[in-house]
Design a protein that fits this description.
Length: 325
């Protein structure tokens, strides 16, 4: 059989034919909406580098979480933006710290209707913008940071998080968090490990989103974008330490990593379609250079095709509403 008998175009002749043979789809239940909740805001504040995304007030966050639940999203991932930041990120631990308050609000709003997730990291809370506490020399101190993460996990679990998402790339973070949760009776609180997280230029707009002014860069703890195999080591460690879900981040430039992680583990794999990936599409669409809706659909589809079971995306609610139409 060769050309003449074999014509792949036959399966592309009509929309119905294409629909029939489509291999992948984007399910609303698999989408997770990341949200920023800022302390002391009276009006939602637009994030200039992420058109369409805001820093929420407590009130607008509650509404957005309720809408996400009505749309049938898989979950929300909450980030807190504290009014005051300090060297140790103490706002992350306080019961009335903005993130813990936002978790409580979300649970009060939707109960168990979707999965309430919380980012477990210090960069939103520290004045130097690093994901951990610093030692005398100004280096990020891995083991001292783990102690803070354990306390942060407990604060988030107490606030009602269904799933905590350690994203600081400290060695041993998943194990320490799992033991802390279990030790306090939170055996059902699950851990979404940002397992293979790269030091990416595409996090740029996120800094504005969480009002962070990072000093230096994150290359001593986040992975080098040159490394693919290393992701499998990171993922294997996190699974061994008790991760319930592992995540690859960013998504678009790392779809090969998503695919190899999917093949290597049997836990659910998430991928985070991050701020810069969002902003690139929005900026090009605003200039009329690409078809926005088609580009969003193709982005999400590509991440699913690579093997992600769960996709975190700032388009989650919009896309779900589009599918429902
Ligand atoms: C760390 C964290 C970051 C993002 C999610 N969690 C920033 C970083 O590691 O530099 C980025 C998300 C995005 O860019 O959309 N708390």
């Amino acid at each position: 059989m060769g050309f003449g008998e074999v014509r792949p175009r036959r399966l592309r002749t009509t929309p119905a034919m294409r629909r029939l043979v489509s291999e992948t789809s984007v399910e609303v239940r698999s989408l997770v909406l990341p949200m920023f909740v800022a302390e002391g805001l009276t009006e939602p504040r637009p994030i200039a580098s992420m058109p369409g995304v805001v820093q929420h007030t407590r009130d607008s966050a509650r509404k957005a979480v309720a809408e996400a639940a009505e749309l049938g999203l898989g979950g929300v991932m909450l980030f807190g933006v504290p009014e005051r930041k300090d060297a140790t990120g103490s706002g992350a631990l306080a019961e009335d710290g903005i993130l813990n308050v936002a978790i409580r609000d979300a649970r009060a709003e939707v109960g168990d209707a979707l999965v309430v997730m919380s980012d477990l990291c210090l960069d939103e809370f520290t004045d130097h913008g690093h994901c951990g506490v610093l030692d005398q020399q100004g280096r990020v101190d891995n083991d001292a940071t783990l102690e803070v993460y354990a306390a942060m996990a407990l604060a988030q679990a107490q606030a009602g998080a269904h799933m905590v998402g350690p994203s600081g790339m400290m060695d041993g973070q998943v194990g320490v968090i799992r033991r802390a949760l279990d030790g306090a009776g939170f055996t059902d609180t699950s851990v979404l490990a940002y397992a293979a997280k790269y030091a990416s230029a595409f996090y740029g707009p996120f800094r504005e989103a969480v009002s962070s002014s990072l000093q230096g860069d994150r290359r001593t703890y986040q992975q080098d974008p040159a490394n693919g195999r290393e992701a499998l080591r990171e993922v294997a460690l996190d699974v061994a330490e008790g991760a319930d879900v592992v995540m690859v981040k960013p998504a678009m430039g790392f779809l090969d990593v998503v695919a190899s992680v999917r093949a290597a583990v049997d836990v659910p794999v998430a991928a985070y379609n991050i701020s810069g990936e969002y902003s690139m599409v929005e900026a090009a669409a605003a200039k009329g250079w690409i078809d926005r809706d088609a580009a969003i659909a193709e982005t999400l589809l590509s991440i699913r095709r690579a093997g992600a079971d769960i996709v975190l995306t700032y388009w989650a609610s919009e896309y779900a509403a589009r599918l429902a139409r």
